[in-house]
Amino acid sequence: QVHVVESGGGLVQNGGSLTLSCAASGLDFASYVMAWFRQVSGKERELVAGISVNGATNYQDSVKGRFTISRDNAKNTVYLQMNNLEPEDTAVYYCKAKRGVWINYWGQGTQVTVSS
Prior knowledge:
This protein is mainly β and 116 residues long.
């Protein structure tokens, strides 16, 4: 059975930092593209950052230069280092493991709140 579990969310002040972690089990982690999404209530879920099986990364424009995604295949974990956080980054952050077109596993989400 596959499990995807996020952790590391919380309350932080404007300009602060947080690191989110996403641990996956029950799958061949190294063969999955991993990504972080976020969602604000009433809005669509949006891609924040992704990392391919070979380590290539991509970012939403609004987080470039502030967020860094990385993966540790030995620990079956993907990270999102978030620096210089802004109130607009407040959202529930979700981790997704993807392989091919049809295989997607989501975590339950972790709340990030940035106070102004």
